[in-house]
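ok, trying the design again with the full structure, not the truncated one.
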């Protein structure tokens, strides 16, 4: 990734922008099919779109970017496609570490990575460890992630604490529960962007986006650029956020 001269640009106050943006990156395969290309080309273009989204996030001084890379349901795809995605993920981790370090990006994966092979798990742990003290953009990759899984694993942790007598059942509140989710260290999601024309959440951050603004676009993910990203931010800015109040 190249983020030349981004960190020194003057910005408006970040209060004009969402602090935490989450993106459902949908449409890689359809983009390839529409152009008569192999699905792998669509994913490669999708990686370029992600790099541009990270670049734009730095430019706009966003605090957190969370992207849906591989859901728990994606294992149902063909073995060849899943293997290609795993290899692509491994390649990105190894090729982008220097850029994460250079531009102060903190990298984190949310999801059950125990399903991945040891080589990929080790790469994830390595990049997370080497960037843990970076205090710039937090880049979360949701991999083998599902919102239902996240809630269930949180419930299991709470039950374990209650059984051990560490936590009393009456102490379990919304704030308490949030501490046991994979995003426990993060601020809430302000804006969810979904590309590809579908208007659904697809099991993504179900608890965390209860009061997020939702922005849907027909643009397929490989064609996602800074102009569409800015449109989504403009949409967010135009919203009056009442969080269930009047």
């Amino acid at each position: 990734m190249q983020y030349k001269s981004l960190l020194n640009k003057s910005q408006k106050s970040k209060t004009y922008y969402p602090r935490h943006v989450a993106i459902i990156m949908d449409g890689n395969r359809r983009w390839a099919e529409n152009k008569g290309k192999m699905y792998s080309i669509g994913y490669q273009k999708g990686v370029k779109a992600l790099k541009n989204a990270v670049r734009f996030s730095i430019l706009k001084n966003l605090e957190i970017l969370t992207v849906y890379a591989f859901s728990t349901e994606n294992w149902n795809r063909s073995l060849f496609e899943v293997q290609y995605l795993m290899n692509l993920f491994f390649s990105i981790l190894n090729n982008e570490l220097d850029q994460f370090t250079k531009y102060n990006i903190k990298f984190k994966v949310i999801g059950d990575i125990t399903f991945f092979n040891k080589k990929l798990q080790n790469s994830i742990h390595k990049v997370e460890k080497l960037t843990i003290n970076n205090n710039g953009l937090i880049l979360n990759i949701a991999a083998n992630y599902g919102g239902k899984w996240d809630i269930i694993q949180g419930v299991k942790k709470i039950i374990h604490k209650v059984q051990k007598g560490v936590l009393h059942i009456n102490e379990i509140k919304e704030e308490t529960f949030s501490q046991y989710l994979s995003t426990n260290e993060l601020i809430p999601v302000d804006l969810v962007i979904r590309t590809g024309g579908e208007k659904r959440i697809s099991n993504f951050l179900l608890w965390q986006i209860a009061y997020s603004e939702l922005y849907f676009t027909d643009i397929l993910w490989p064609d996602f650029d800074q102009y569409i990203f800015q449109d989504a931010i403009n949409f967010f800015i135009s919203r009056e956020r009442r969080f269930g109040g009047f």
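Keeping the full-length input from now on. The two ends are 43 Å apart (CA to CA).
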